[in-house]
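Fold it.
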Amino acid sequence: MNNVRPAAILLSGGLDSATVLAIARKDAFACHCLTVDYGQRHQVELEASKRVVNALGASSHRIVRMDLRAIGGSALTDDIEVPKDRKATTDEVPNTYVPARNALMLSLLLGLAEVIGASDLFIGANAVDYSGYPDCRPAFLDAFERMAATATVAGAEHGVRYRVHAPLLELSKAEIIRRGTELGVDYGLTWSCYDPSEKNLACGHCDSCLLRRRGFEEAGIPDPTSYSAGTGH
């Protein structure tokens, strides 16, 4: 077991990150998961992250608090209405974009990677079926790798080459769901909705719900999500 390579996994508790954890485990990495409580309105995803780790297994799991409500500027961290029923073809970045979120989270993940001696970082970024966020694009991930080489002692002093793995980057949501299902991911344990009801039911109308619902439909796999009444499920 001492020869198993460690990896740092950014795990939100969502569909994509659960699939990434399953992929990293299949690739024989010792997975050290990091979940960030950034004050998101969908706090239920934090519990989902614990369920996913318990089901898939990991070498460790940390939940780190980082209060982005103090900054605001997003429907996920501020008193701003979450957009509903947006057209999938829109090019407009929605107000659910959290300023610099992935840059901040990957920086925390990089810190964890340096501590555990890992050079491999995994993130569930997706540039196909995503909501238009710039921090889910290949250019951002490439830039982060270059930054990591100069921002850490391991990189700057010892020549460690950090790699940000985004195995879902070019996959559709349906392809992600099929891949995860092949790897045994129970998507009923995951959470996607940005605006859950008081009873922790998915709204069925936010960008994340729409992508999830369409993904299961196109994959031909039953959607295990419990949606609020009036969503068609």
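The chain has seven helices and five strands.
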